[in-house]
Amino acid sequence: MANEIIGWDIGGAHVKAAVLNSRGELAAIMQKPCPLWLGLDKLRAAVAAVMSKLPPAPYRHAITMTGELVDLFEGRDDGVKTIIEAMSELLPGADVVLYAGKLGFLKAPEVDHKHYAAIASANWLASASYAAQQVGSGLFIDIGSTTTDILPFDRSRVIAEGYTDYERLVAQELIYTGIVRSAVMAIADSVEDQGREVGLMAEYFATMADVYRLTGELNEAHDQADTADGAEKTVLASARRLSRMIGCDFDPKDLPRWQRLAENLREKQSDKIQRGIEKQLARGGLAASSPFVGAGVGRFLIRRLAGTLGHPYLDFSTLFPAELNANGMTAADCAPAVAVASLAIGH
């Protein structure tokens, strides 16, 4: 019987893994790049990279996913089926369970097509459910590299209006904006520059990683994606990419101009997330003393928004007995992987 559990969050751009030891303590956290749309070999390489860092042991594996969304697959069902088959092959002979949201955990050999919809993109529910169990009442917010989840919870239960991605987008419980991979052109139509409002080019010239590199808030360990132009990840290179968004050439002496432009874009993204938070708060039921539980690599925005909206802030990492920072990654950075491992204890 395996005593250690690995929680896996199989995304379309990253694979995240969290290891719980036999005492239920967080022993390791990892994130590996996995541009799954380029082929299953990317998943195989990411999983192999994770396993190579761990000592041999009869691990149990708990899996959640969003990678079924990538256009490598014909549709969600095909994606879920293929990812389960691939993970079963990569973890031969292991005890593998899938997180199926409201259905709980299912053993990999028992999964069939009627379970695919429950398994698809359920990682948000794992994270929010764990937070609800630990905190009781509050608002769970996960700002990641690409998306933002906003879920109220009360009496230790998640109060979600939507379950599918479509339903969650309608309810604004899912907002497709993140602090690394999101294209700048998806954040706003215009930006303030030198006292003027100027339209942003609808071109993939820069990402939000460039913005947060210029504001000084980007943890470089969290940026595992390619830059928009394939060039280096430096402050000056980010400023050059950002200058292209408003049709300008870059001169290093103008760096403060592009830092101000980045601050303005930061505010526009933060305002978008704040509107989503306010929509969830307007549903009622949460006391002013209820905390915002922040997760994801962009949770520095949540801390600020909690103060703006008059709520206490609680970091997801503090829900675990001992803080673990491994290669720049914490429990809050990889919340779905940590949560699915924790929820799988006893299943």
Structure description:
- Among the domains are: 5-124 and 319-343, ATPase, nucleotide binding domain (Nucleotidyltransferase, domain 5), CATH 3.30.420.40; 184-270, conserved archaeal protein q6m145 (Nucleotidyltransferase, domain 5).
- The strands form three sheets. It has a six-stranded mixed beta sheet, with helices on both faces. Strands 7, 8, 9, 10, 13 and 14 form a six-stranded mixed beta sheet that branches. A two-stranded antiparallel sheet has the order 11-12.
- The protein contains ten helices and 14 strands.
- Strand 4, helix 2 and strand 5 form a beta-alpha-beta unit.
- The mean pLDDT is 95.
- The chain has 347 residues and is α/β, with parallel strands linked by helices.
Mean pLDDT across all amino acids:
95
Largest sheet: 6 strands, mixed
Which structural class should the secondary elements be placed in? alpha/beta
> What does the overall shape look like?
globular
Following the backbone from N to C, one meets helices and strands in this order, namely EEEHEHEEHHEEEHEEEHHHEHEH
Proportion of residues in β-strands:
15-25%
Radius of gyration: 20 Å
As a percent range, the share of helical residues equals: 25-40%
- What CATH architecture of the domain at 5-124 and 319-343 would you give? 2-Layer Sandwich
| Strands side by side in the biggest sheet | 3-2-1-4-5-6
